Amino acid sequence: MDKPEKANRLRKAIAKNMVNSWSTSPKCDYKMSANAEPMMGFRKQFNEENDCKVSFLNLVAKAVAIALKEFPYVNSSYDFENHQHLLHEDVNVGFAISLENNGLIVANVKNADQLSLTELNRESQRVIDAARNGTLQLEDIQGGSITINNMGKFKRLEQHSMIINQPELAILAMYNIVDKPVVVDGEVKVQKQMGFMLSADHRVIDGEMACEFLERVCELVEHPEELV
Asked: Which segments of the chain have a pLDDT < 50?
């Protein structure tokens, strides 16, 4: 006999928000891959020189923050009732954080474009820890520009469909770094690559803009010296 289990408040809120987002945002998905070898080398050297542990997530978050400044309509919301864009001045990068009770919450780092990599690393760890120990403040979950979903721990996952965190207009997934054959100067070689999936609200972000934005993120991943 089936055993009913009452949903907790967090799960109820998640369910409500997901249904709202699904009915609000006509989204399209875009997938690209980037050469991860420059980022891997940069991260190793940066952490050794600065005695810290900046993660791949932080490097991607910084790349996203820079790209958002260059694509203001991605860093916006859409007021459907008044049919106007709400262009955001701040760049607040959100992180999808899984919780022990199978819940999920998004907390964001404010003004991520203005933070150094070490500051971004410290602040992202603060909001992640706060989410998991229940000490997040209201401001930590409000005012987000975009959400990053780090799926790197799932080694076999190559892509998946996502739901946008309202009232944001896009969500970006990053995947595990894998060896892939690529053609370089006419020769096939094995290269370490990271895959990305962008789900974007087509009311504002059309295909060209979405691809240009995601391409810029990939360019920054492949040229990590631009992140400092």
From this structure: none
